TrEMBL record:
It comes from the Eukaryota. Keywords: Kelch repeat, Repeat. The keyword Zinc-finger does not apply. InterPro entries: Kelch-typ_b-propeller (IPR015915). It comes from Amphimedon queenslandica. This is ZU5 domain-containing protein. Residues 609-618 have a biased composition (Polar residues).
Length: 951
């Protein structure tokens, strides 16, 4: 026990049945049973005396009393306490007048010194209103919990009894019941929960020691079982909805603490390292010890080895250390072999502060009630430094107040200047408002003379386009004072807005459609997407609208066959031609000037024979001349007008005008230019189409659905297909035209499979797609799709699949391939052990839990072998944790030790593992450990793998 300095330091008043909670380098003590506390439920005097906290500075050994804000708990003694970060939590307690117990939960912030009530005292739910229970803080699955166990209180006017819990009273006082309740309090939701209790549940108990071993385990020792004292030791393992209790049986009952209650205990966690390490640290065992001091009629001190169920008693200690009950006990680690023990209060021989040391020398433990003189000199030196720092802080505070006064004076001067300038500004704003009001009146007169826009911009567009294939919408403001252009390339739309075309605040809405209840002019086919366009205000000048089409324009005569059409925004949408519009040879966009909008699209006038085929518009024309083919007519016209050589030359000149990015012209297509030159119509063989292949994984990774979809070569349609297959793997894309009209057919023919273990099965026969289906404007483009099932036999299909599919009936004919890889396995080896996963298979939840258990069981050696900062950075790099979690575990200002922050980091890893059904997170974690390339990290990885494989 430390000696007193020559200058008397502040010492808190005597008390018992209290607690001191360590956060960082300070102990925080509140309440306790004191003779000067009023025996009332609540009063101003009681509030005043309970609104202070005693703070013990561990480095200096000095006490300091500090005021608090907020309302402290009414349970002033016999409460339970635990800490998480900078928050200390207090549960229940005795109100200091007869028969008044509580089950409230409060938090106290050691940074702000402010109280906050989390759960009020109530008889409706939660633990019973009681005293002398115990509480620990746990962290499970990334969330913080408080666990409250035992205690005693009144049997009447209390909360409903907890199922499976036991309540037992004294014969002399039957209304006072001890209990063995166990409750969780989830901090994130603020709710009390009753977990499932398994194993050796203690009998009704109070006045016992409960200490945390890890983030999800604790130990319980001693206590009062109604009339019987206890010296039993229990190990408790917590999970999210249950807990498992097992009693630790002493190896030598004769060398074990006697039964006791109202004692105090603290946990000592250490690793048994010799002075000179011959082997890496992981070759030495870690240990957890419980230091037990005093108790009712128990004037002794014991150190319990939890790992092997043995105990050691320390003899020849003064009564000021051992002769205490209802006292507080705290520990502060000075070095891996030296721990400072701080006692305060309680009944017995002494109630003042007693500072002792627990030392380990050559693996033997010694308890020193009177620390060595060098330690005392060091403490006195720290006290002097602390006093000097207090003086410096006082001086700085005086200087700060002086600077604050000067700053306030400067602020007052600037505020006066600001007030003067604000008045001048208000006067100018008043004049400006008057001018603006006059301008607005004139502007309103102009607006009244204009017709309103044909559609309301703010009206929901989708409501007007009922039953149609709407694929995208775009809303934008049109600039007032400059010429601007807008390109919506993904959906084949662009426009130019000349300067002065719109008034202020004009908005524009564009909606792209690729199918609907459209009625086209006779003899035409739709060659663009349909766009619903509306503006919020009348236009002052026309806008230049450009739409993408899918026609291969090679002659001016063909360009003349393309027309812009419009339809009112009312189903069915009956389109009619629009005068104007420009279409250039070799280009895939047509443009038109418009100042009024509705539904706009581009159609192509077809020859009589081709327009007679179904096009989805419900109308057709009959061709009376059945005896002469369109091709014969073209060849006849070519013979009468010019030689083939001249026409070919003209075709080559046209081909040179094509833009970069347009479809290339083959030799056969160049030859066909000779025949098309004199044609006044567009043939269906002039329309570009695109075929796309996608793969979707099914079942366990040994089956795929391969889809081939053919649609018109329009960006809007292609984007729609990609959106529909957003989760699929995109493969080859081929662009083509049909060989013949009016109803071309693309045929898919499977080639021979040369790879063992693979099969490809079409979903329909014959595998054909019809041009008429692709041109059907009444339905979604998705209907023009062929599906094939691709199977890989596990263990047989070892080589990649390369299956050819011939595409015929189109120009150019081509061959595409289905390329698939068989399922692979991932193996990580460490020494003689390995871990295996199918890369495409899901890992069951039970195996993921085993991976988490492997990490939990190796927490101690991970703490010692790995650097916290390096591990956190690598986990962030692999996206196992996020930046917020990295900052949280690396912040040493939280009050948590490095070990506790490492525990927190590992809990983040376990949470990610539980959510990762592919098992990749556990593999990445092992890889990160093995990258350190040391014997220690190899042993850790080996331990993780062996636990996973053998459990």
């Amino acid at each position: 026990m430390s000696t007193k300095s020559s200058k008397k330091s502040y010492e808190p008043g005597e008390r018992r049945n209290h607690s001191t909670v360590r956060v960082g380098d300070s102990l925080y003590m509140w309440g306790g049973f004191r003779t000067d506390f009023p025996e009332v439920h609540n009063s101003n005097e009681k509030r005043m005396k309970s609104s202070v906290v005693e703070v013990y500075h561990l480095p200096t050994g000095m006490w300091e009393q500090k005021p608090t804000t907020g309302n402290p708990p009414l349970g002033i003694h016999g409460y339970a306490s635990a800490a998480i970060g900078n928050e200390i939590f207090y549960f229940g307690g005795d109100c200091n007048h007869q028969g008044c117990y509580h089950n409230s939960l409060h938090s106290f912030n050691v940074k702000t010194f402010r109280w906050k009530e989390l759960s009020p005292t109530t008889s409706h739910h939660g633990p019973m209103m009681k005293r002398d229970a115990s509480m620990v803080a746990m962290r499970m699955y990334g969330e913080d919990y408080l666990v409250v166990i035992g205690g005693w209180g009144l049997s009447y006017n209390n909360t409903p009894k907890q199922p499976e819990a036991e309540y037992r009273g004294l014969d002399q006082v039957p209304d006072l019941h001890h209990c063995n309740e166990i409750h969780y309090y989830k901090l994130s939701s603020g709710e009390w929960m009753s977990p499932l209790v398994k194993g050796d549940r203690p009998p009704p108990i109070s006045h016992f020691t409960l200490a945390s071993l890890s983030t999800d385990s604790a130990i319980l020792f001693g206590g009062l079982n109604v009339t019987e004292w206890s010296n039993r030791l229990y190990f408790i393992k917590f999970s999210k909805k249950s807990l498992d209790i097992s009693e630790i049986i002493p190896k030598k009952p004769s060398q074990w603490p006697q039964k006791r209650y109202a004692h105090s205990g603290v946990l000592i966690n250490t690793i048994d390292f010799p002075e000179h390490l011959a082997l890496p640290k992981e070759n030495y065992k870690s240990g957890s010890y419980l230091l037990v001091v005093g108790g009712m009629n128990s004037e002794d001190c014991w150190l319990l080895d939890i790992s092997n169920g043995t105990a050691k008693r320390f003899f020849n200690l003064p009564g000021a250390v051992t002769d205490r009950f209802y006292h507080s006990l705290s520990v502060w680690e000075l070095s891996p072999d030296t721990y400072q023990i701080i006692e305060f209060g309680g009944g017995g021989q002494s109630s003042n502060t007693a500072v002792s040391q627990l030392r380990r020398i050559n693996h033997e433990w010694f308890f020193e009630a009177n620390p060595m003189q060098p330690d005392l000199d060091l403490r006195e030196k720290r006290k002097r430094k602390w006093s000097e720092r207090q003086s410096e802080e006082t001086s700085l505070h005086v200087k700060k107040q002086s600077l604050e006064r000067e700053l306030e004076e400067e602020i007052r001067r600037r505020e006066q200047t600001t007030i003067r300038l604000r008045k001048d500004l208000q006067e100018r704003e008043k004049q400006l408002r008057m001018t603006e009001e006059s301008f607005q009146e004139a502007l309103h007169l102009v607006k009244d003379e204009k017709e309103s826009a044909q559609f309301e911009y703010l009206r929901p567009q989708l409501d007007l386009l009922d039953g149609d294939v709407v694929i995208a919408e775009k809303n934008l403001f049109l600039p007032l004072d400059e010429t601007s252009s807008f390109r919506w390339k993904k959906y084949g739309f662009r426009f130019q807005c000349p300067q002065g075309a719109v008034s202020k605040g004009t908005k524009m809405a564009i909606t792209a459609l690729v199918g609907g209840n459209f009625i086209l002019p006779k003899g035409t086919v739709l060659v663009s997407a349909v766009y619903a366009i509306s503006v919020s205000k009348p236009l002052l000048k026309p806008l230049v609208i450009e739409l993408q089409h899918c026609v291969d324009l090679r002659t001016n005569a063909q360009a003349d066959c393309l027309k812009f059409v419009r339809a009112p925004l009312k189903s069915p949408y009956e389109f009619s031609p629009i005068d104007g519009g420009s279409f250039n040879v070799g280009r895939r966009y047509g443009s038109i000037k418009r100042d009024q909008f509705s539904l706009v699209a581009i159609v192509a006038e077809m020859s009589n024979e081709e327009s007679a085929s179904p096009s989805g518009n419900g109308e057709s024309e009959e061709n009376d001349d059945h005896g002469t083919s369109n091709q014969d007519f073209i060849e006849e016209m070519v013979t009468e007008t010019a030689s083939n050589e001249a026409m070919v030359g003209h075709a080559e000149a046209i081909a040179e005008t094509r833009l970069i990015g347009d479809q290339p012209t083959s030799a056969s297509q160049t030859e066909s230019l000779v025949q098309i030159e004199s044609n006044n119509y567009v043939n269906r063989s002039d329309i570009w189409y695109t075929g796309m292949m996608y793969h979707e994984r099914r079942d366990t990774g040994y089956r795929w659905i391969t889809m081939y979809t053919a649609v018109k070569d329009l960006d809007a349609v292609l984007q729609h297909i990609e959106n529909e297959h957003s989760n699929a793997e995109r493969d080859v894309v081929n662009t083509f035209k049909f060989n013949q009209g009016p109803n071309g057919i693309i045929k898919l023919t499977l080639g021979t499979l040369n790879e063992a273990g693979w099969s490809v099965q079409p979903h329909q026969e014959p595998m054909e797609l019809h041009q008429s289906v692709m041109d059907n404007i009444q339905s979604s483009p998705m209907v023009s799709t062929l599906r094939l099932s691709v199977y890989a036999v596990p263990g047989v299909a070892n080589m990649p699949l390369h299956c050819p599919i011939d595409l015929t009936g189109i120009n150019p004919s081509t061959t595409i391939f289905i390329n698939r890889l068989p399922s692979t396995r991932i193996t990580i080896s460490t020494g003689s052990s390995s871990i295996n996963f199918d890369s495409v298979r899901s890992i069951p939840e039970s195996r993921r839990e085993k991976a988490c258990e492997a990490i939990t069981n190796s927490t101690g050696i991970i703490r010692d072998a790995l650097d916290l900062g390096t591990l956190a950075n690598k986990l962030l790099e692999k996206r196992i944790i996020n930046e917020r979690e990295q900052r949280e575990v690396l912040d040493d200002r939280t009050g948590l030790t490095t070990d506790r922050r490492m525990d927190k980091l590992l809990s983040f890893v376990r949470t990610t593992i539980r959510l990762d059904s592919d098992g990749n997170t556990f593999l990445l974690f092992i890889q990160i450990i093995t990258e350190e390339d040391t014997i220690r990290t190899d042993m850790i990885a080996k331990r993780l793998v062996e636990y996973y494989n053998n459990n």
